[in-house]
TrEMBL record:
The keyword Methyltransferase applies. Keywords: Methyltransferase, S-adenosyl-L-methionine, Transferase. PANTHER family: TRNA (ADENINE(37)-N6)-METHYLTRANSFERASE. The keyword Ion transport does not apply. Belongs to the tRNA methyltransferase O family. Residues 6-139 form the TsaA-like domain. Transmembrane segments: none annotated. One of its GO terms (molecular function) is methyltransferase activity. This is tRNA-Thr(GGU) m(6)t(6)A37 methyltransferase TsaA. One of its GO terms (biological process) is methylation. It comes from the Bacteria.
Length: 154
Protein backbone atom coordinates (compact mmCIF):
# COMPACT_ATOMS: atom_id res chain seq x y z
CA UNK A 1 0.00 0.00 0.00
CA UNK A 2 1.08 3.55 -0.65
CA UNK A 3 1.86 5.91 2.20
CA UNK A 4 -0.45 8.86 2.66
CA UNK A 5 0.95 12.25 3.58
CA UNK A 6 -1.30 14.73 5.39
CA UNK A 7 -0.65 18.31 6.41
CA UNK A 8 -2.49 19.65 9.46
CA UNK A 9 -5.11 22.29 8.69
CA UNK A 10 -4.60 23.82 12.12
CA UNK A 11 -3.83 23.17 15.76
CA UNK A 12 -5.72 22.92 19.05
CA UNK A 13 -5.00 25.91 21.28
CA UNK A 14 -5.93 25.83 24.93
CA UNK A 15 -7.89 23.27 26.82
CA UNK A 16 -6.15 20.42 28.58
CA UNK A 17 -2.33 20.16 28.54
CA UNK A 18 -2.07 16.46 29.37
CA UNK A 19 -3.78 13.49 27.68
CA UNK A 20 -5.61 11.95 30.64
CA UNK A 21 -8.99 10.32 30.18
CA UNK A 22 -12.39 11.42 31.49
CA UNK A 23 -14.19 14.68 32.17
CA UNK A 24 -13.71 16.10 28.67
CA UNK A 25 -17.05 17.93 29.01
CA UNK A 26 -15.23 20.47 31.18
CA UNK A 27 -12.84 21.48 28.39
CA UNK A 28 -13.03 24.44 26.04
CA UNK A 29 -10.46 25.00 23.34
CA UNK A 30 -9.86 26.75 20.03
CA UNK A 31 -9.04 25.08 16.75
CA UNK A 32 -6.82 27.63 15.05
CA UNK A 33 -6.61 27.20 11.27
CA UNK A 34 -3.29 27.67 9.46
CA UNK A 35 -3.48 31.25 8.15
CA UNK A 36 -0.88 30.54 5.47
CA UNK A 37 -3.24 28.04 3.83
CA UNK A 38 -6.73 29.26 4.72
CA UNK A 39 -8.72 32.44 4.94
CA UNK A 40 -11.96 33.01 6.85
CA UNK A 41 -13.90 31.84 3.77
CA UNK A 42 -12.88 28.25 4.62
CA UNK A 43 -15.15 28.46 7.67
CA UNK A 44 -18.07 30.32 6.06
CA UNK A 45 -21.37 28.80 7.15
CA UNK A 46 -19.85 26.53 9.80
CA UNK A 47 -21.43 28.61 12.55
CA UNK A 48 -24.88 27.38 11.45
CA UNK A 49 -24.07 23.95 12.94
CA UNK A 50 -24.18 23.03 16.63
CA UNK A 51 -21.58 20.25 16.54
CA UNK A 52 -18.42 19.29 14.68
CA UNK A 53 -16.48 16.15 13.91
CA UNK A 54 -12.76 16.77 14.28
CA UNK A 55 -10.03 14.47 12.96
CA UNK A 56 -6.68 14.91 14.64
CA UNK A 57 -3.27 13.33 15.18
CA UNK A 58 -2.22 11.86 18.55
CA UNK A 59 1.10 13.69 18.34
CA UNK A 60 2.41 12.81 21.80
CA UNK A 61 2.15 9.02 21.51
CA UNK A 62 5.54 7.32 21.64
CA UNK A 63 5.85 5.11 18.52
CA UNK A 64 7.04 2.28 20.80
CA UNK A 65 3.60 2.40 22.49
CA UNK A 66 1.57 1.80 19.31
CA UNK A 67 -0.63 -1.25 19.70
CA UNK A 68 -1.63 -3.53 16.83
CA UNK A 69 -3.05 -6.48 18.74
CA UNK A 70 -5.57 -7.18 21.48
CA UNK A 71 -5.33 -5.59 24.92
CA UNK A 72 -7.56 -4.75 27.85
CA UNK A 73 -8.88 -1.17 27.50
CA UNK A 74 -7.17 1.09 30.05
CA UNK A 75 -5.44 -2.06 31.34
CA UNK A 76 -8.57 -2.93 33.32
CA UNK A 77 -8.44 -6.66 34.25
CA UNK A 78 -12.26 -6.74 34.50
CA UNK A 79 -12.63 -5.96 30.80
CA UNK A 80 -11.93 -8.38 27.97
CA UNK A 81 -8.94 -8.24 25.65
CA UNK A 82 -10.11 -6.62 22.43
CA UNK A 83 -8.28 -5.68 19.26
CA UNK A 84 -7.07 -2.15 18.66
CA UNK A 85 -9.84 -1.66 16.09
CA UNK A 86 -12.50 -2.64 18.66
CA UNK A 87 -11.55 0.30 20.89
CA UNK A 88 -10.78 4.00 20.55
CA UNK A 89 -7.47 4.22 22.43
CA UNK A 90 -4.83 6.71 21.31
CA UNK A 91 -2.06 4.14 20.76
CA UNK A 92 -3.41 3.30 17.30
CA UNK A 93 -1.39 2.36 14.19
CA UNK A 94 -1.99 5.69 12.40
CA UNK A 95 -2.44 7.78 15.56
CA UNK A 96 -5.74 9.23 14.34
CA UNK A 97 -8.37 10.55 16.70
CA UNK A 98 -11.95 11.48 15.85
CA UNK A 99 -14.05 13.56 18.19
CA UNK A 100 -17.49 15.10 18.17
CA UNK A 101 -17.72 18.38 20.03
CA UNK A 102 -20.00 21.38 20.42
CA UNK A 103 -19.27 24.40 18.26
CA UNK A 104 -19.38 27.55 20.36
CA UNK A 105 -18.37 30.15 17.79
CA UNK A 106 -16.26 30.98 14.77
CA UNK A 107 -14.03 34.06 14.94
CA UNK A 108 -11.86 34.61 11.87
CA UNK A 109 -9.71 31.47 11.67
CA UNK A 110 -10.51 30.41 15.24
CA UNK A 111 -13.12 27.74 15.88
CA UNK A 112 -14.17 27.76 19.54
CA UNK A 113 -15.34 24.35 20.80
CA UNK A 114 -16.53 22.59 23.94
CA UNK A 115 -15.81 18.93 24.76
CA UNK A 116 -13.07 18.27 22.21
CA UNK A 117 -10.98 15.39 23.58
CA UNK A 118 -7.68 16.63 22.15
CA UNK A 119 -4.97 18.44 24.06
CA UNK A 120 -3.28 21.79 23.54
CA UNK A 121 -0.93 21.62 20.54
CA UNK A 122 -2.72 18.74 18.81
CA UNK A 123 -2.45 18.89 15.00
CA UNK A 124 -5.94 18.99 13.45
CA UNK A 125 -6.31 17.17 10.13
CA UNK A 126 -9.93 17.96 9.28
CA UNK A 127 -13.10 19.59 10.58
CA UNK A 128 -16.53 18.54 9.39
CA UNK A 129 -19.94 19.78 10.47
CA UNK A 130 -21.93 17.10 12.25
CA UNK A 131 -25.09 16.27 10.36
CA UNK A 132 -27.67 13.99 11.97
CA UNK A 133 -28.03 12.05 8.73
CA UNK A 134 -24.41 10.88 9.06
CA UNK A 135 -25.13 9.45 12.51
CA UNK A 136 -25.99 5.80 12.93
CA UNK A 137 -29.10 4.54 11.21
CA UNK A 138 -31.15 2.25 13.44
CA UNK A 139 -30.27 0.97 16.87
CA UNK A 140 -26.69 0.86 18.08
CA UNK A 141 -25.07 -1.76 20.27
CA UNK A 142 -21.91 -1.90 22.33
CA UNK A 143 -20.52 -4.21 25.01
CA UNK A 144 -20.95 -3.47 28.71
CA UNK A 145 -17.24 -2.69 29.18
CA UNK A 146 -17.47 0.12 26.60
CA UNK A 147 -20.39 1.71 28.45
CA UNK A 148 -18.44 1.46 31.72
CA UNK A 149 -15.32 2.96 30.12
CA UNK A 150 -17.27 5.92 28.72
CA UNK A 151 -19.31 6.59 31.89
CA UNK A 152 -17.11 9.53 32.97
CA UNK A 153 -15.46 10.35 29.66
CA UNK A 154 -17.71 13.35 28.95
Amino acid sequence: MEAITLAPIGVVAGGRDEPFDDDWNTEQAVIRLDGTRFGPGALAGLDAFSHLEVVYHFHRVDPAEINTTARRPRGNPDWPEVGIFAQRGRNRPNLLGVSRCRLLSVDGLDVHVHGLDAIDGTPVLDIKPYMAEFGPQGETEQPRWATELMRNYY
